[in-house]
Amino acid sequence: MLNPIRYSFGADQHLFAEVSESMSLEAFFRGVSITRALSELELDGVLDICQANASFQVRFDPDRIDPQRLLAIVKEVEAGAGSERSLQTRIIEVPVLYNDPWTHETLMRFRDRHQDPSSTDLEYAARINGLKDVDDFIAAHCGAPWFVSMVGFVGGLPFMYQMVERERQLEVPKYLRPRTDTPKLTLGHGGCFGCIYSVRGAGGYQMFGVTPAPIYDPQQSLPYLKDHMVFFRPGDIVQFRPIDRATYDQAVVNVEAGCFDLRIKPVEFSLDAFLEDPMGYPKTLQEVLA
Q: E strands along 170-228, which residues?
């Protein structure tokens, strides 16, 4: 049972709603119910509604809508919103070159900021998760799909939550001190969340590999980016697929030629079906890509 939502104002243009103190799919779907209902009202003065892992934020113009009136409306929406338990979404196969040379070179430059300077990020992640070796960790990482619960921090970066039972969640702490460099399109992991670094820059998540698939492109040069320069959306389901170096290199060539594409299939995600069978239900989602 989720607790009542906590509301607070950020400066004079933002209303923040904390649905839950911790991420859960129930909290995400509660946020979906409220933000969808709020969007349908098309309130004058509401500029943007942004959903996060277990919260949402409303950006508004205080000259067009009084903050207290907005708060009262959102609380009314909360009280009357239905309970969304399913979602029409898409499942996306994302190719990954695990244990690649670029993240390896980067992580070796920053071992003084890591919990275990004597091992790589993958070796450390495997050990603290009680797995035999790096291969077992990679198998666990791509063995179940991931649910995109929010997009942000930098343009196009997805935060993902693996669809397994809580006791099987892969958990790895962030670096002791952030790096000043992370290769573009790195697969990162911090806490129980995975991400893909959409651009090169600073970062603190453990690094496991790279994907050749651009996920943020203002030029919108690839087929799957024609509709929007930011690819991922909250509610997307991601299935990682390990690839070898030759496949990665060919994909990069295709990206540069503008002919690279991702495998994307429509799918309905049922929260109740997942909660009833958290091991079997994700396999039915994976079968959509078969």
A: 186-190, 193-196, 206-210
